[in-house]
Amino acid sequence: MGKRILWALALLTAVFILTNATYSMAAEKIYINGIDANFPPFAYVDKKGNADGFDVKALDWIAKEMGFKVEHKPMDWDGIIPSLRAKKIDIIASGMSITDKRKEQVNFTIPYWNIAQVIVAPKDSTATVDELLSKGNKIGVQRGTTEARWIKENLIAKGKNFSLVEYDSAPLSVEDVLNGRIKGAAMDDAPAKDAVNKKPVRIVGTFGMPSEDFGYAVRKEDSELLKKLDEGLKKLMASPYWNELKRKYNP
Amino acid sequence: MIESLTILAGALPYLLKGSVVTIGVVFGAMSLGLLFGIALAVGQVYGAIWLKRLIGLYVWFFRGVPLLVLLFLFYFGLFSLLNINLTAFTVAVIVLGLISAAYQSQIFRGAIVSLPDGQLKAARALGMSDATAIVLIILPQALRLAIPAWSNEYSIVLKDSAVAYALGVTEIMARAHFVASRTYQHLPLYFTAGVIFLILTYAGTKALRLLEERVHIPGYSQ
């Protein structure tokens, strides 16, 4: 009997791995969009567990308009560019800022959103941005973001007296602001507004970082997909649905 | 409080679907680890010296490198380099399975060497080949002895599977984090994730305990 169980297990394991391998070779090409599901209102997971958010719905519209299929896959922000380059995903439409550094690795569509970076602090604190970024205070930020990089290069490296604590997501840094472990957290203004709506925090203000543009990222060699996305974005921004999206998600 | 509970109740089906993913990862990894682990154990006990060294190297590597490092190494490194495009789920199963094989091989090796020497000699004296004796005499006894330690390994793999979240496997932990990001209810969600893991650990170890009693050889002694 033991032998039969072993054989059954061996067979199951093999079937398991094979089905998974062939699954990704399905006949019709479905583009996979990698999202940081911890980034409301641009990308998150709704009550039923489906991907939702400004970027998700925008890309769905573009896919329909341009005649391709897209699926959204929640993943860790840290590994999102390696995942794109390793062909685990095909698009990143998840509030990604266009930067020169990232352009070395991926291609971006036309910009579709301009975003400012702000500092968030507890509602009952009266500190200004300058006060927060001094006195050896701890300030939170999401790991792997442009604001983390900018703060290190332009504030800390230039002698500002505070330290940076890096988190997995912006909401986790907000949670730690409320726990009192850090004095404030730096993030894009859209998720900051989302946090203000849900938690007793306030937006203290900007901290001198130039505003950035969001674009969708694709692999360097996927120029055809890039063309489709660019065209789709232009159509979307000219359509009434664009304003509808803005009203709905209020980014 | 009421608000937390409502959010939690709404998120529960989504979290529970995550436990199906977790169970899938654990079942796959444990099965792979079992097959591979038995082969490694037999090789390490009865194999030629070079085989023993090779297996020793394998065990040393997979026990020595942290899980997260191995996951990233395989997912972003090895499989990409070989141009094999596996899903995050499959890679998690393979990596956890390879690591578990290293640990399970030592569980089985311990069980095999704890059997009295005479068993194999007696089997050989009855005219069995080495292979037949190992399959029919040694392994059935060793596997029974290994169950308690194996259930330990189950609970470790179960908890380790949460790390697969870093690759984007939407298991329990990943889902709890997603819902917490939307709702800002971190404490109740991580608490619930913990409870789901506790239930899965309990159910698995209990089942293995029952199996242990069921397959116990009556009157067996050293």
Please describe what this structure looks like.
- The complex is a heterodimer of chains A (251) and B (222).
- Chain A folds into 2 domains: 2-114 and 213-249, Periplasmic binding protein-like II (D-Maltodextrin-Binding Protein, domain 2), CATH 3.40.190; 117-210, 3-Layer(aba) Sandwich (D-Maltodextrin-Binding Protein, domain 2), CATH 3.40.190.10.
- The longest helix of chain A has 22 residues, at 2-23.
- In chain A, the strands form 5 sheets. A 5-stranded mixed sheet of chain A has the order 11-10-12-9-13, with helices on both faces. A 3-stranded antiparallel sheet of chain A has the order 2-3-4, covered by helices on one side. A 3-stranded antiparallel sheet of chain A has the order 6-15-7.
- In chain A, helix 2 packs across helix 9 (223-238).
- Chain A is of the alpha+beta class.
- In chain A, 42% of the residues lie in helices and 24% in strands.
- Chain B has a single domain, classed as MetI-like fold (Orthogonal Bundle).
- Helix content of chain B is 82%, strand content 0%.
- Chain B has 8 helices and no strands.
- The longest helix of chain B has 45 residues, at 2-46.
- The mean pLDDT of chain B is 93.
- Chain B has helices at residues 2-46, 49-64, 67-81, 88-114, 118-125, 130-160, 172-183, 186-214.
- By secondary structure, chain B is mainly alpha-helical.
- Chain A binds chain B through residues 2-3, 6, 9-10, 12-13, 16-17, 20-21, 23-24, 34, 37-40, 44-49, 73-76, 78-79, 82-83, 86-88, 168-172, 174-175, 195, 198-199, and chain B through 10-11, 13-14, 17, 28, 31-32, 34-35, 38, 72, 75-76, 80, 84-90, 93-94, 97, 135, 139-140, 143, 165-168, 170, 174-175, 177-184, 186.
Task: Please give a handful of descriptors for the protein shown.
heterodimer, A: about 250 residues, D-Maltodextrin-Binding Protein, domain 2, five-stranded mixed sheet, three-stranded antiparallel sheet, B: about 220 residues, mainly alpha, MetI-like fold, about 0% strand, flat
